[in-house]
Design a protein that fits this description.
The structure is a homodimer of 432-residue chains. Chain A folds into 2 domains: 4-125, SH3 type barrels (Roll); 133-427, Fumarylacetoacetase-like, C-terminal domain (Fumarylacetoacetate hydrolase, domain 2), CATH 3.90.850. In chain A, 18% of the residues lie in helices and 26% in strands. Chain A has helices spanning 55-60, 66-75, 81-86, 88-102, 109-113, 140-150, 245-251, 274-277, 339-347, 375-378, and strands at residues 30-34, 43-48, 51-54, 116-118, 123-125, 133-137, 165-168, 174-176, 180-182, 185-188, 197-200, 204-205, 208-214, 233-240, 243-244, 265-267, 272-273, 281-282, 306-307, 310-316, 324-331, 358-360, 386-387, 393-394, 402-409, 417-427. In chain A, strands 6, 7, 8, 13, 14, 16, 17 and 22 form an 8-stranded mixed sheet that branches. The radius of gyration of chain A is 22 Å and the shape is globular. Chains A, B: This is fumarylacetoacetase. Chains A, B: Residues 156-425 form the Fumarylacetoacetase-like C-terminal domain.
Chain lengths: 432, 432
């Protein structure tokens, strides 16, 4: 799984790609952007340091050949779907070629430098056309904590350790980091009289998740076996599944969340590839009491089916003057089900996944005291507001709050890689 | 709302469009097809009698002008999304122009006749690219009957009469009538030991629904008001929401149905426009005990917010030699919530709908004894198998069963119009 692109001593000739940042030469995440100047079309690129390698420009200079050239032509498009469909050989060939072009001593360094665009001036687009967005429920601690909000002795869900529970979300309202969000209105749970109220949600929340992008996918009526899943796992982004807890409480029985979540989902602009994440694979958390998974969900003995990805949510409040104060911090290594299991389960009944489909990990919470991935858990359903470092308190989000998600991977002997950020500000309710 | 295209005495010069069939001159539904000969590209058309008007051919002959010509150019494409986005003026102008071209005495009749292709030789495609598919739960009787399967004294859901309960379905697996379906496999509810079984579903069911196609849609952060909904309602098809009840029972708590339904949804090839349905509007069923709807869901006094559309499901079994035997029969007039309310609710929180999005009505059951829209209800959860007219019994679907849905509208003083059929055969389980 590891190759020369993962070597920790690789150095890039671009100073801002120095070790310790989100985008060193070992990362090379894909995204779609418009360079400075609003009239230019969107195109695909790769983040390096504080710059973006414009793949269309690099292709035009003839910097790639073979499979890498084929990959670059597809990854340069304004939607990465065709690149995602092209499969692991082309993903990997392009990664290797870009890694070599960016290394200290690369003879083409000056030509490549002419293809770099500053991130600070870029406008990002959705990385691909998302045909379907599925959200899962993979954090055991999130399940336990959320259940206890409503009932202190809530038992675990009986199906949780047998399957990655999932549901379909809204594809039309997945947008890239920075999208505006007005506080949504809707039906709020009834009080004594049984009549629901109507108005802006009073229990707005974030959910700290990862998003997984599907590669080639499968035809309807076929399944992706667990051991074939790596061929279909393109990469990972940060994902904020904004949620209105009061709307959710009233609408979600019996068919699940709907208007409580479909008003917006934001994702980070950069997709970190599973190849870049290879050094950070981890064992799934299992205890002796856990049931043995059914065969279609059972990884080979010793397989590292999880990923150790640190996640953090910070809040920048109006009163706090924009300084971000950490709220949630956990790791994806706590997830009970890993990405390959999501694919295997989703397709086991013959459901077809298409290139660019998005799978949310569900809120990531860990077992520790500050490891809850949303305010519902942190504030115990609003009963125990969280104290921010500037003295403010939050049971749920307030107008003007900016939620900033970050993620990164660190492991001794490997270069740190990061996801950038996924950011959004809650505005006051409008007419809609 | 009514205009010259609805006049019951209009007659078409095509003999097969005689009154009494599904596709008289008063109907004029839209679809996408490939004429006889597999190599020709898909294109848009309008059903008339047993033929299809090829809109690309008719446009090329210069048979339309003005808004109708603009509409025809869009409706001739292999996906109707741009026509759906073009709005009611163009939908209506094209309908009127086609109605006039097809009337007895139309001077262009011979030119139009050259643009007709036989339905019997056509291959149908999905009428549009479906960005998101949402399914609703609008039949009160379906809610009561389904609840009683699990608990004889099950109370009504407290939110049912306050909102059209909805959830997101799978867009990738919506296919046109005739799609093949292998019996899906999955996790089946655990017995005594608490360990789920794995295997082909034993409780396969159909759901008799209508599908509503969205027209122009709305930007994220805005809502479609109830009285603006007609501008956004393009048309209606038949929809079979195939369901695996055992998979559903085990997976659906707490996030709703997922693998129990996302393996396939079939729709009829023809979209009957809301303009064609105008004579069949009906009052929503309400009793004095029902709560007054919240303002955003409250139609004007006397508004006819429902539609009287007869629905029927027949089963053709292997043993029955292909003869269809009626199982379910009901009408959409029993739905508690009408199409405009689905749009108003769906967007009230700012969720954006896109042209070509599909909204399912949910299973349509009525209050009468044989008016249940799925086998789960008809067989009371499998406990009381239904006896078919040839003596066979069905608790759930068996391999080789062909489900045939039909729909039509009849009202004294108006021409009968029909939906054609939505058909699918359940095959034995395969590997996926």
């Amino acid at each position: 799984m590891l190759n020369e692109t993962h070597a920790p001593d690789l150095k890039c000739w671009l100073a801002s790609a120095a070790p310790g940042g989100d985008f060193p030469i070992q990362n090379l995440p894909f995204g779609v952007f418009r360079p400075a100047g609003g009239s230019q079309p969107m195109r695909g690129g790769i983040a390096i340091g504080d710059m973006i390698l414009d793949l269309a420009a690099a292709s035009a200079l003839g910097l790639f050949d073979g499979l890498a050239a084929e990959g670059a032509a597809l990854a340069a498009r304004p939607e990465l779907n065709d690149f995602m469909a092209a499969g692991r050989d082309r993903w990997s060939a392009l990664r290797l070629a870009v890694s070599r072009l960016l290394r200290v001593g690369a003879p083409q360094a000056e030509a490549v430098r002419a293809c770099l665009r500053p991130q600070a001036q870029a406008e990002y687009g959705l990385p691909c056309r998302i045909g379907d967005y599925t959200d899962f429920f993979t954090s055991y601690d999130h399940m336990i904590n959320s259940g206890r909000v409503f009932r202190p002795d809530a038992p675990p869900l009986p199906n949780f350790k047998w399957m990655p529970i999932g549901y379909h979300g809204r594809a039309s309202s997945v947008e890239v980091s920075g999208a505006r969000l007005r506080r949504p209105s809707g039906q709020l749970p009834p009080g004594e009289g049984g009549r629901p109220e109507f108005g802006p949600s009073r229990r707005m929340d974030y959910e700290m998740e990862l998003g997984v992008f599907v590669g080639p996918g499968n035809a309807r009526g076929t399944a992706i076996a667990l051991d074939a899943a790596p061929e279909h796992l393109f990469g990972v982004c940060l994902l904020n599944d904004w949620s209105a807890r009061d709307i959710q409480a009233w609408e979600a029985l019996p068919l699940g969340p709907f208007l409580a979540k479909n008003f917006l989902t934001t994702i980070s602009p950069w997709i970190v590839t599973f190849e870049a994440l290879a050094p950070f694979r981890s064992a799934l958390p299992r205890t002796a009491d856990d049931p043995e998974a059914l065969p279609y969900l059972r990884p080979a003995d010793g397989a590292l089916a999880g990923y150790d990805i640190e996640l953090e949510v910070a809040l920048a409040t109006r009163a706090g003057g924009g300084a971000a104060q950490r709220l949630s911090r956990s790791s994806y290594r706590h997830a009970y089900w890993g990405p390959a299991q999501l694919l295997a389960h989703h397709t086991r009944n013959g459901c077809n996944l298409r290139p660019g489909d998005l799978l949310g990990s569900g809120t990531q919470s860990g077992p520790g005291p500050a490891e809850q991935g949303c305010l519902l858990e942190l504030s115990r359903g609003g009963r125990e507001p969280v104290r921010l470092s500037n003295g403010e308190r939050r049971a749920f989000l307030e107008d003007g709050d900016t939620v900033v998600m970050r993620g990164w991977c660190e492991r001794p002997g490997f270069a740190r890689i990061g996801f950038g950020e996924c950011r959004g500000t809650l505005l006051a309710a409008g007419d809609a």
